[in-house]
Each structure stands twice: as structure tokens, then as C-alpha cells.
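Appendix B. Chain record.
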Amino acid sequence: MSQNRFDLTDVVQKLADAAPAADATGEFPWVGIRAVHESGLLESAVGKRFGGAGASLPEVARILADLGRGDPSVALISAMTIFTHLGEAGRNRWPEGLYRGLLAEAKHRPILLNAARVEPDLGSPARGGLPETVARRTGNGWSITGRKRFVTGALGLTHFLVWACTDEKPQRVGTFVVPAGLPGIEVIHTWKSLGMRASGSHDVHFTDVEVPREDVLDLVDAGSGAQDNRAHASMTLALSAIYLGAAEAAQAAFVRFAHERVPSNLGYPIARTERFISLAGEIDLLVGGARALIFNALDYSLDNPEALIRARLLAGRQLLKAARLAVGALGNPGLSADLGIERHFRDIQSVLVHAPQEDTAIAILGRAALGRGHLASQSPASVATSATNSILKAG
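C-alpha cells predicted for this chain:
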């Protein structure tokens, strides 16, 4: 089992202290991001061949759970950069000079990276299709034009990783590295979400933005550029750890309130009443169960996409239920910003919003189940053996 070898105690406290103000204003959470940067966590997954710590995906998920206890929005912005480094640690996608240059800059300031993939008409690429954003060949490189939606951390990113189709014949699709601040980039303030308000997942419009010819990743034939939701199942599950952290923060606030609240007609804390003992147990069952689901799958089932997807959906549903239970049990105090549970409740609503959305994930599981059923009709013994092996491996 992977353990978290990174000490996040001070960082989490800084994020928690700054989170209410960031949530209230919706402005970019620089206090939290700088704390994460100064701790070195943004580069925690940089590969060892680049001099990094080489954190594994299970370790990254534990980092995100800790950061999520402080501020899920900061955790999500950080996750996009950490995942980029994690991907490069396992593959040589980036031009080496460009990547090493980013790492050198990261020693002095937060280098924040995020993919810009979703579009107004296309929606999420998790459902298939190609981007309308176009990369046109120029004398020196590429000119990028198009509009992207839900670009987390848009106002603070140093680089947009823009998914676009080329104007070539045959057409190709790839991810173009676009530094922020270039002429032709406009962040459009469209993020007005119930929760995760400080994530600043605004729209970004690119108009004839010039980038060098070599600053492109995974440039392939357009017919082979579709997103593979099963291949991304592990990182999507790791994102759920952010909301696990938020739920654990809500649980801690619930427990603290139960110990501190002493009604005059009772004469002792409500934590000693059977009702709150039962409520605390239900919340612990849901939140603790979600933690077990997430990390058991990440520790033991990284080669099993269906197990990862299943864990994500079950854990997400449990976290949503736990948040509803905590808010509903406290009445008005639960809805007050003073206690903080209502903010955690709002943030947790995003746990199953990330692509692939719940219906797409369910369809993946359904197709796999039907495939096993078809196999069972031909050879029941083979299916039984496969199921037993999966159980033994997970245990």
C-alpha cells in the first residue's frame, strides 16, 4: 500500500484558513496556490529522471485528499498540474527543452498547467467527437483559434494545453502548449457554480494565438484522437480524493459542533445524545467507506478500469449522501457559513461532474457486465474463475 511521504499539515491549515474568503469572492486563490507551490507539492510527481520525487498515482491521490480538506478548489487547480507531471514521468510527450524550462521556472514561481478540452458545441470529449478549435500552420509554427469551456484555474494558469485540430489534409489532432499572456487570449468570466467557486473554471477564447511548431503534444491522425475513458479511469478516481477530503472536513466540523453545542434544556453536549451518536456513525460509515473504496482501488486495481470506475461512482455517491446528512442533521447551523459545512456541501456536489460523467461511466460498466454475461453463457466456469481471481487480487 502507498503511504503519503509528504507532510502537508501546515499547507492544509493555510488552505483552510484562506478558503472561506476565496469561496466568498470567487477570485483566484493565490494564497492557497502559493502555499502548495512553496511546499514543493506542485512538482511532487515530477519524474526522478528530471530530479523530481516521482510520486505515484496513489500517493498523488493522498496528497489531493489532504489538500481537499483545506480547500478543494486549490486542490483541483493543483491536481491539473500534478497530473501533467505524472503523465510526463511515465511517457516522453513533451519536447524536453520546453519541459525542463518549465521545471526551472517552477523553482521561482507557481507553474500552473491545465488542459483546455471542453467546447461550447462539442461539450466534453469524453462523449466522443473532435474539437472545433483549429491549429493553422504558419511560417514559424501554429496559430490557434477557438473557445474552450470549464478551464479550471484559467485566471492563474501559466500554460494552457489546448486540444485542437489542424487545418492539414489529412487532419491531425493534438494538444498545443500555449503560454498565458500571449496576444489573442481572453478569459471570459463564465464560472458561476454552486460550489468550487475559487476554482475559476472560466471559458477561454483563443484568437490567432501563435505558438512554436514543436510545442505540441500527441499530434496524431484525427481518427485516432478520441479520449479513452477507460484509460483515464485511475486519474478520474484520484480526483475523487479531493472531495473525500472535503467530506472529511465536513465530518470534522460536524463532530466539533456536536461536542461544543450544549442546549440549556439538556445540560450536556449533543454529542452524548443517541441521535447524534447514530448520525456520527452513519456519516463515518459513508465517509470512511468512500476512503476505503478509493484507496483500495488505487492501491490494488490500477490495471482494472472497471474496478476504478466502480469505486469512483460508489465513493462519490457515498460522499454526496454524507454531506446531505451532515447539513440536514444540524438545521440552520448546518446552512450557516460560520460553521463551514454548507461550503463543503456545495463543493462536494461536483464529485461526479468530472468527465466521464456518471451516465457515461455507468455505460462502460454496463457494456463490461453484458460482455461477461455473454461469456458466462458460453463458459460459466471461466467467469467464476475470473471473478475469484479478481477478489483474491483485491484482497
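Further analysis of this model is presented in Appendix C.
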